[in-house]
Amino acid sequence: MRKKDNPTRSMESTLEWIAKSIDQGLLPAMVLSDAAIYELEMERLFARSWLYLGHESEVPKPGDYVARSMAADPVLLIRSNDGEIRVLLNACRHRGNIVCRAERGNTTSFQCSYHGWRYDNTGRLVTAPGMEAYGDKLDPAQWGLVRAAKVERYNGLIFATFNPEVPSLDEYLGGMKWYLDLVTKRSDAGLQAVGAPHRWIIPANWKLPADQFVGDTAHFPYAHISALGLGTWPMTDAPPWVANISLENGHGVWIRGVESGYSLMGQRGYSDSFVTSLKSNLLPAQVEALERTGSLGGNLLPNLAFMDLQFADEPGSPSVGYLSLRLWNPISVDQTEVWSWCMVERDTSPEFKDTAYKAYLRGFGPSGAFEQDDMIVWAGPTRTAKGPIGRTLLQNISMGMANTKLDQSFPGPGKVYVNKSRFLESNLRAFYRSWLENLVRGA
Amino acid sequence: MSVTGVDVTYREIVEFLMREAELLDDRRFEEWMEILTEDIYYRVPIRTSRERDEASEFLAESAWFSENWKALQMRTKRLASKGTLSEDPPSRTRHFISNIRLREASGPNEIAVKSNLLVYRSRGDSVQYDLFSGERRDVLRRVNGSWKLARRDILLDQAVLGAQDLSIIL
Fold first, then answer.
1. Which of A63, A284, A368, B54 has its CA 20 to 30 A from that of B67?
2. What mean pLDDT comes out for the span B132-159?
3. Do residues A149 and A47 lie in contact, with contact meaning Cβ atoms separated by under 8 Å?
4. What is the CATH architecture assignment of A51-165?
């Protein structure tokens, strides 16, 4: 417990205290429940960062759009008639009405339902009824739908930001690109999102799923015991290797795999030709890493996560590999909207895609055997961080601090932490350190 | 109500659905599995809001559930096992089935049935509860004199799921 609460303590000194705590392997519970911290996150982290919007396969044809959210801001991810992908704030420039209320569709223009302002699918204002009433003061070039300052793609993944000062996507991703390649660059044909994402609301602070996906390899045998017993998780006798890999900008990756020299490629159910294409698309070091990888996941600060897994769709069947992408979209300090996509390579067979989707669905999504139990363990900390005593507590995030070492032999970038007992929270600490740096830097 | 081509009474179908709801609410999952045919398929598609006149809101590729017998067996086995955090303590459900309509037969021993579904679900000491509303489209098949469920599609009345999970059987 920390010292008696000083109501006039400034945010600056609070952030300093949080930083010192993290360095000691402690996390103040209040970061999960404090309203002022939440507002600071919105202002200094979400408003300023690259955020994930979707995959280019979700808007394949000119005019295609999907409605997405960037924190509390509703946006449209749209492929304009000129083929370019844009991100537009879904708010009429007149009085702010929502311009498009469908979740997906295809259109060449949008008309606001309130006063009829009309925009083309680049967001440009085409006309506003009563235009003459503005004299020459309503310049269409100034009054189009607000466009994201930057929209960039990496291997089909579309990111955007309204912050013109942000470094390039390339710089933001840093070493994470190498790991994203493992899951997005296996095929020349690229990935496709299977249908529409699952969207559901969970009673948890957004950081709980983010900080689990960034590196929590210790929770599987406990939180997920009911799912592990179902017989859909492929087993191996090869010696296990588990790592937390810390990258730049608060990103982290975890791997549950096997020691060098062993291969788990067979768990993925890929055709021989797919494996050949994978080996030619990835660097030899990446192929080596993928061979050793059973499950791989990570989180990009703030709220994009992924898991590359192999599961069977039913007990007794062979496992197949699929990728799930996640967005933890904050709704309020204690509520998050989860977006979850199943991604497969375009050039896999229809049967493979069908099996992969079922394997995903039976493990993940709100009806999934693994996912259901995660909701419970994220709701719990959110709840206990609220009470007058609970909010003063310091959580222990020191697992592995004493005996984790760097594995210099792993071929991928970043700080690769391993621990003989396989219990480590290196990425958890790194996530919160970066999270905090963003809040401080924005001051 | 009668449907040509099938020897069935409305009452039989209502009793089947009422008994099935009781099995689910009483968590008698093994007995519930027994009223499914071996080729059962149980699907709840995802829907996304579309403008009127556009294609259907429901997707063929994406679903909240998409389960054959083995998958349902896996699901009910997990629901009954210790260590299932999401269902220990168990959810309380109440299935309300109404507006039951018999539709055309797909054979002398099969019948399509539409009904409205409302499932109430609560947990623990929370006063929050979930309400899942939807349309059920079932195919029932008479096997050795008893009706069984051969196919279920549930069209939920939500796009974004307003619940933290679907740990129950709708």
1. B54
2. 97
3. no
4. 3-layer Sandwich (2.102)
